[in-house]
Structure formats: structure tokens, C-alpha cells
Amino acid sequence: MEHYKQIHIWNLPTDKIYIKFNKGFREGFFNLVHQKFGNFNLAGEFLQIKRPDSLLARNWRNGTNCCPLDLMIKLANEIEMPLEELENGIEEIRYKTNIGKRGGSSGKPIKNPKLPVIVNEDFAEILGHICGDGTISRPNPNKGIFFKYTNSELALIESFQALMRNIFGDVEPTIIKRNGEGYTRENYVLQYPSIVSLFVLNVFDYKTGIDMELPSFIFNMNLNAKARFLRAMFDDESCVQVKRKAILFGLKPINPLLGVIKLLNEFGIKTGNIHKYSNGAYNKFGVADKNSVIKFRVLIGFKHPEKSKKLNRIMEVGWRFERYCNYKAKERIIEIIKMNRYLEVSQISKILKRQNGTIQKHLEDLRRDGKLVSHKAQRRINNTNSFPNVWHIKEVENG
């Protein structure tokens, strides 16, 4: 049985975490505190808080106010209560920023939190989306740490919300719909409270822009977790081209792209070369090898309905010809010309079942490599003369 990493409440910045206990635990906990100190005023002095008769004895004890996590841990240690027991008694947890006299501002809480948070396959899938169309940002320290996921595909939006509930508990996002000029489809933005960001940042030092990296621990997780991480990223950042029988994946930063390739290779999935687009600002590679496309479908796949449909279409159409990598295609061209001596582009294209333009490019490369030459040959078709290029092997001059 695999042992997953766990994120406990004491792994978070406890001075900015506020909690509420469920009724049964709350009553027992504060009774133990009262027994330990004799009265709540002495407990207040121990915690160095003002007005313990109202704050501790009434507000915290009755559950009308959230309790500071760091002080509750201090009390638990004093009454010799295991922190795991304290954690199990929490029914609400939130993060507060800009703490002042009135307690500071806070985002929505996680209700009925699933503690400790387990870094499992669901968690890996969420991280894949964060590395895709999601983000964690800190535009203003006094306004928390934004955790957002954006997508135009409603199926992915609903799946993301379900995953978040599975991982963290009852946590509801603020949903923003974006449409109008500049949008071909309505976009949905899910914005989660800062407390979620803290759990994720505990195991993943997320960075934006060109500094982005994949979570290092993903490479040490089981294959199912890796597959779900990859599926999330490909759901967000890939496109499927049926005619080319290829899956294209692209990101601006190069390092996470290399990480994705490394993970794909663990599944025996081969990738093409990385190409730069948009003046070098965007990096892209493809999965186009027949066996690799099949492995991707079986081992990783898509949740995105349209991409899944296109991938299935590739399987239905099948491969009518063998796909070659560049050097294999050129070797086949040389073999064919050796057998036939003189051939036109159209004749080679017909034999290999490739487009004329593709064959022409290979021929030009082989000419530059000094392996082939061409000359004009007269052809008479339907009483009309034409002078196509015919290609043949370059003869080695005897020196």
C-alpha cells in the first residue's frame, strides 16, 4: 500500500490560520483547558490575550468566533492533547491577512475540511491543471493568495470543482464568467480562497512565467498519479490534429515542457523535436508516432470531451501508411531512387504516400548533403512538352 505525503494544519503558517471546532470537540477541549488552569482568566494570561472572560470563555468556547490556530496548538500542548486529535475536531478553517485589532480580512473557509490533506492522485491532477490553465498569485499580500483555474470547457470546470471537494472538503469557489469581444467561447474562472493556496504551496513552490517548474515530487509518484497529472496538463495545453494524426503540446517556459517530455517517456511515449513559435516565446512539441499516440490514448487520455473525440477519430481512421522520422524517410528515398535510377517528385510521393512538398524538402536536404542531384528531363504528355526535375544518385568522382 502506497504511503502518501500528508499536509497537517501545523505545517501551515499557524499565526494566520483561524479555525472553528465542531460542537462535541469544542466543549470537551475547553473543559480540559478550564480544568488545567482553574479558570479562563489564567488561561488568557497564559495565551497573553485581552478580555479572556469574553473572548475565550464565551466567543471561542461557544463557537461564535474563529480561534487562532497557533493559540489552540499552544493550549493543546499544555493540556497534553495530541495535535492529531485537535486536527480531527476542526469543522472550519480559513486564512486571514492583514491581521489587526479587529482580526483582519479573510477569504471563504473550507468547511468540514478533510484533514490532513492527502497528496494523492487527485492532488496530482489538480497540480497538472495549476501548471496548465491555473495559477497561484500574490498581487497584494493584504488581499491573500489567489488560487485560480480558467477554462472554456464546462466539463473540465465541473471536474475541477469535484476534485477540489475530494481533496479539501466543502470549499466553494467564486465563479466569474468572461465573454464578449476577444472571446470565441465563454470562459469560466474559478477563484478559491487563500487557505487552499497555503496547502498547495506547502508542497509545491509554484512560480509564474518563465520561472515555472513542475512539482519535483511528481517524478517520484506512482504511474497513475503521473498519468493524471499529464492528462490535466494536456487537457489544458494541447490540441489534437486528426489529419496529421498528432497531439501537439505547448508552453512558454521551456523547463516544464522538458519535464512533461520526461514523464511521457516513462510511459514509452516518444515526442518530436521542440519548435519555437511567436519569435521564440512559445515552445511546442508533438506526439505523432503511431505507437505513442495509441499509448497516450490508453495510458493517459483526455477528460476534455472534444479532444477525446478527436483522439478517438484518429484511432477510427487508423494509419494508412507507416510514419517515418526524418532520417528514415530520407533513407527510403535513396533506396527507391537506387532501384529506379531516375524519379520525379510526384513518382516518389506516390510510392511513399506522402505530399509532394514533404518529398521535395527531403530531396533538397539530400542534395545539400551531396547524396542526390537533379536535372531537367523532357516529357511529352497529351502533345505537350514538360520539363520536370528528375532525381538520381550523385556519382562519386574518382580522384
Mean pLDDT: 89
Distance between the termini: 71 Å
- Number of helices, counting only DSSP H or I runs of 4 residues or more: 15
Largest sheet: 5 strands, antiparallel
Give the uncertain stretches in residue-range form. Answer: none
Q: Per the principal axes of the C-alpha atoms, what is the gross shape?
A: elongated
Structural category is: alpha+beta
Strand content: 15-25%
Helicity range: 40-55%
Radius of gyration, in angstroms, nearest whole number: 31 Å
Number of strands: 19
Q: How many domains make up the 3D coordinates? A: 4
Write the layout of secondary structure elements.
Blueprint: E1 5-7, E2 17-21, H1 23-37, H2 40-47, H3 52-62, E3 67-68, H4 69-78, H5 83-88, E4 90-97, E5 105-106, E6 110-111, E7 117-119, H6 121-131, E8 134-137, E9 146-151, H7 154-168, E10 174-178, E11 187-192, H8 194-201, H9 223-237, E12 238-241, E13 246-251, H10 254-266, E14 275-277, E15 282-287, H11 290-299, H12 305-317, H13 326-340, H14 345-352, H15 356-368, E16 372-376, E17 379-381, E18 384-386, E19 389-393
Antiparallel strand pairs: 1-7, 2-3, 2-4, 4-5, 4-6, 8-9, 9-11, 10-11, 12-13, 13-15, 14-15, 16-19, 17-18
